[in-house]
């Protein structure tokens, strides 16, 4: 496992590198203290398995770098590691294609568990305070459906915060069909309907129907909300339940 760690603070870069390399003897971490250094590392080597990206870089916005990497390296998972734990930053990161969001305030043990989950093919989203910051504006004319979706995310958050690490609800509670499970796995990889249809050998219209069914099962109204919801619902063990879903298995 080769990991590119991007953080412009030397002490944090060194500390995170030690933690990540402690996850296993086969984990090799390459540090980059700027967006420019990260670009150079990716251009020099095509065997990275994971990118860990800080949002606050001296020479670029982390969100801009995230967009750039998702565009140029679509198959390479990017996980945000940030001093921020704002729900808006989590949602924006996932919406831009990040496969996880890990607050730096997490303990070393929790950070290790989160990264193991991601390395096993899962996705980590921290339990968030989905209160006023994430709620629809009072005068926005939000529909009752949108309010219900927000309430569902609050429920998921509460279930997740009731445990020490993620939610204990379990993805099996969604009762998806095997094909819907395949679609969910590919959806969580950030793939558009056209690519999902091509990989599964069905029409785009069929995929749209499956995506709608998946969103309905999760009680949410968008792909971003689906990723957040599944991130809250994953099992405690990083190598157990969720990685099989990400591989498209029921």
Describe the structure.
By secondary structure, this protein is of the alpha/beta class. The protein folds into two domains: 2-119, 3-Layer(aba) Sandwich (Rossmann fold), CATH 3.40.50; 144-246, Arc Repressor Mutant, subunit A, CATH 1.10.10.10. Helix content is 49%, strand content 9%. It is built from eleven helices and five strands. It has helices spanning 10-21, 35-44, 62-72, 87-95, 108-119, 144-161, 178-187, 193-200, 204-218, 223-233, 241-246, and strands at residues 2-6, 28-32, 50-53, 78-82, 100-103. A five-stranded parallel beta sheet has the order 2-1-3-4-5, with helices on both faces. Helix 3 (62-72) links the parallel strand 3 (50-53) and strand 4 (78-82). The chain is globular, with a radius of gyration of 18 Å. Mean pLDDT is 75; it is low at 129-143, 156-169 and 235-250.
Evaluate the radius of gyration. Answer: 18 Å
| Helix percentage range | 40-55%
| Fourth CATH level, the homologous superfamily of the largest domain | Response regulator
The structure class reads: alpha/beta
CATH topology of the largest domain: Rossmann fold
User: What is the class of the largest domain in the CATH system?
Assistant: Alpha Beta
What does this entry show, briefly?
With about 250 residues, the chain is α/β, with parallel strands linked by helices. The protein has helices spanning about 10-20, 35-45, 60-70, 85-95, 110-120, 145-160, 180-185, 195-200, 205-220, 225-235, 240-245; strands at about 1-5, 30, 50-55, 80, 100-105. It has two domains: about 1-120, Response regulator (Rossmann fold); about 145-245, Winged helix-like DNA-binding domain superfamily/Winged helix DNA-binding domain (Arc Repressor Mutant, subunit A).
């Amino acid at each position: 496992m080769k990991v590119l760690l991007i953080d412009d603070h030397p002490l944090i870069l060194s500390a995170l590198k030690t933690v990540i390399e402690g996850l296993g003897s086969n984990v090799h971490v390459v540090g980059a203290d700027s967006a420019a250094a990260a670009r150079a590392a990716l251009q020099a080597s095509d065997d990275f398995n994971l990118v860990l990206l800080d949002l606050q870089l001296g020479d670029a916005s982390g969100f801009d770098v995230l967009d750039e990497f998702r565009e140029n390296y679509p198959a390479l998972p990017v996980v945000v590691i940030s001093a921020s734990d704002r729900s808006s930053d989590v949602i924006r990161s996932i919406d831009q294609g990040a496969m996880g969001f890990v607050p730096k305030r997490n303990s070393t043990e929790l950070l290790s568990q989160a990264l193991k989950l991601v390395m096993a093919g899962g996705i980590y989203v921290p339990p968030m305070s989905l209160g006023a910051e994430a709620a629809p504006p009072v005068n926005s004319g939000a529909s009752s459906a949108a309010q219900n979706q927000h309430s569902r995310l609050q429920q998921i958050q509460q279930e997740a915060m009731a445990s020490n690490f993620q939610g204990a609800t379990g993805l099996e509670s969604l009762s998806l069909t095997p094909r819907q499970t395949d679609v969910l796995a590919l959806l969580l990889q950030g793939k558009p309907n056209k690519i999902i249809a091509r990989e599964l050998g069905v029409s785009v219209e069929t995929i749209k129907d499956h995506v709608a069914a998946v969103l309905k099962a999760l009680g949410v109204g968008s792909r971003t909300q689906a990723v957040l919801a599944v991130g809250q619902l994953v099992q405690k063990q990083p190598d157990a339940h969720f990685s099989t879903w990400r591989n498209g298995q029921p």
